Amino acid sequence: MRGIKIISTSTVRAAASHDIEFSTRKIELTPWDLQLLLMDPIQKGLLFHKPNTFSQNNTQRLKTSLSRTLDFFPPLSGRLATINHHDNTTSFFINCNNAGALFVHSRADGVTVSDINDTVYPLLAVQVTELADGIFIGCTINHTVVDGTSFWHFFNSWSEISRGFDRVSKPPVLNRWFLGGTNLPIRISFPNDHNKVLFDEIMDIESQPLKERVFHFSKESIAQLKAKANAEIDSNTPISSLQAVLAYLWRSIIRCSDTHPDRESSYRLLIVQAGTVTMKAGELLERGLGFVAREMNKMVALHTEEKIRSFLESWVQEPKLLTEGNMAAEALVTNSSPRFNVTCPGSGNKSHGKITVFSGVEEGSIDIETCLLAETLEAMGNNSEFMEAVTL
């Protein structure tokens, strides 16, 4: 695959704010936001076949519609700002100053749609890449500012404005919610050697070459996995489709990665608060799909309103920022939802890879993009027990 040539870079600002107050307002960040300060941004995009008449005017129309969309999303045209306090703590906020989003226009000569199918900074960056026969529009947004739902809300709103709508159909809710009694701004204390600490945590996960493959689970296959999981247990709380698929995937990865039966394996679900299921690899494989799915179900059920409020109170008192190191160590990690991103660094301190779960083309289906160790991925592809639920 040939390289990408940058044609132009520019800054796109909101055209004219519909809310004058918000155009100059600062937004305080919640514990949900602040814990993600050190995490990678959300990076997603959409791939289109190139229209016959695509020209520079098309790129300009994208920039114009982006500018008008930012009218409704002022934080994405702002900047992340800091205040250093006299007690050696730091607080962060979003400065809605309309400093603008980064817009990059590039060209990947010789790259086709089939090639892709086979394989004091802006808070928002957009890159429009022309392929030989297609267009890829990618967005990178700071994870402190948006979650997966908000990311796609922005993308869909941009699509509406691009299609000629004057306003977005679902205006974003920009106000943050804080637990009663929270003193603002929330202050975070960094150790003097925090750069070294963060570097050590990141380097603690060994980087290994990964391979990619997409596994498609049809609506019928998912229904069968769900029915099987529920049939294997005696519980008044039904197993969901997602829990059944994730349990099936976890067991398959462990089975195909030659994990010792006595070694503990943990599955950590990270949405806005982490929850962990831990069991020995041998038990994981012997107890069946229903047992594993039920353990996930029980873990999710523990996240009550009381527990979440307790988490918020304790986090404000002792903030802890998430990193790839402290999140992935000794666990398979899943974050977000079937419509967004699911990552899965492996057991031990070695990152076994990443899994991204999307809604499939057919209603009710799921496409799972896997980035795993080559030997694990090959073993999964050759494992008849795993592949019987996969549609080729």
From TrEMBL:
Keywords of the record: Acyltransferase, Transferase
Entry keyword Signal: no
Gene3D superfamilies in alphabetical order: Chloramphenicol acetyltransferase-like domain
Keyword Transferase attached: yes
EC number: 2.3.1.133
InterPro entries associated with the record: CAT-like_dom_sf, Sec_Metabolite_Acyltrans
GO molecular-function term, one example from the UniProt record: shikimate O-hydroxycinnamoyltransferase activity
Superkingdom of this protein's organism: Eukaryota
Name assigned to this protein: Putative shikimate O-hydroxycinnamoyltransferase
Species in which this protein is naturally found: Rosa chinensis
Phylogenetic placement of the source organism: Eukaryota, Viridiplantae, Streptophyta, Embryophyta, Tracheophyta
